[in-house]
Amino acid sequence: AQSVAQPEDQVNVAEGNPLTVKCTYSVSGNPYLFWYVQYPNRGLQFLLKYITGDNLVKGSYGFEAEFNKSQTSFHLKKPSALVSDSALYFCAVRATYQTGANNLFFGTGTRLTVIP
Amino acid sequence: KAGVTQTPRYLIKTRGQQVTLSCSPISGHRSVSWYQQTPGQGLQFLFEYFSETQRNKGNFPGRFSGRQFSNSRSEMNVSTLELGDSALYLCASSLGGQGAETQYFGPGTRLLVL
């Protein structure tokens, strides 16, 4: 079975401070890991993904994520938060063995609020 | 390139009715997946279509169905609507749906069942 946990429903951070949104996963074998962001009344926008190789993945809008296999984590980070980063963030996983099936398993989401 | 489009954006239906939602993928994408998003259950996978065939299905009742056309556009249908079907329905497209391909999401159709 595959699953994703986002332990924090809400994260508040001051503008200009670094931010971290946490994600841990459970999957048989190796994972493909994704981060998406959702703004109000919008669909999900792709931020970044981990496939293999370098554990630090860089994505859109200055976001990056660190893959840690031993801790089964894929935390999203940004060095300096902007008010416009305030949104709902989703972590998702798919098992690499899962051929012929394209579904992602999503976490419950973390609402990020950046305080001016 | 145009993104994934979904129509309609908003729908209000009553219990017992049926509804059809439409999704047009990014040009060249052949895989379309559908997800249901609710406050209580989060994002849940409904089904995926590739080359006009359902390739994968989530754990939803048979009232939820879909199809894909030769131009890769997809529709999903929900029959005998229940109050609990109120949700944001998202579709996502990708090239072929294999490996680590990124799924790109549309803006969603918000369905309210009264």
Could you explain the architecture of this structure?
The complex is a heterodimer of chains A (116) and B (114). Chain A is mostly beta strands and 116 residues long. Chain A is built from no helices and 12 strands. Chain A has strands at residues 3-5, 10-14, 19-21, 24-26, 31-38, 44-50, 56-58, 64-68, 73-78, 87-95, 105-106, 110-115. The mean pLDDT of chain A is 92. Chain B is an all-beta fold and 114 residues long. Helix content of chain B is 0%, strand content 53%. In chain B, strands 2, 4, 5, 6, 9, 10 and 11 form a 7-stranded mixed β-sheet that branches. In chain B, strands 1-3-8-7 form a 4-stranded antiparallel β-sheet, with no helix packed on it. In chain B, β5 (42-50) and β6 form a beta hairpin. The termini of chain B are far apart. The mean pLDDT of chain B is 94. Chain A binds chain B through residues 32, 34, 36, 41-46, 49, 51, 90, 92, 94, 96, 99-109, and chain B through 4, 6, 31, 33, 35, 42-43, 45, 48, 50, 55-56, 58, 90, 92, 94, 97-108, 110.
Rg for CA atoms of chain B: 13 Å
Oligomer status? heterodimer
User: How large a portion of the residues of chain A is in β-strands, by DSSP E?
Assistant: over 45%
Query: Would you tell me the structural class of the helices and strands of chain B?
Result: mainly beta
How far apart lie the N and C ends of chain B?
Answer: 37 Å
The averaged pLDDT of chain A comes out at 92
Provide tags for this entry.
heterodimer, A: mainly beta, six-stranded mixed β-sheet, 12 strands, 0% helix, B: 114 residues, mainly beta, seven-stranded mixed β-sheet, globular
Topology (SSEs and partners):
The complex is a heterodimer of chains A (116) and B (114).
Chain A: E1 3-5, E2 10-14, E3 19-21, E4 24-26, E5 31-38, E6 44-50, E7 56-58, E8 64-68, E9 73-78, E10 87-95, E11 105-106, E12 110-115
Parallel strand pairs in A: 2-12
Antiparallel strand pairs in A: 1-4, 3-9, 5-6, 5-10, 7-8, 8-9, 10-11, 10-12
Chain B: E1 5-7, E2 10-13, E3 19-24, E4 31-38, E5 42-50, E6 53-57, E7 64-68, E8 74-78, E9 87-94, E10 104-105, E11 109-113
Parallel strand pairs in B: 2-11
Antiparallel strand pairs in B: 1-3, 3-8, 4-5, 4-9, 5-6, 7-8, 9-10, 9-11
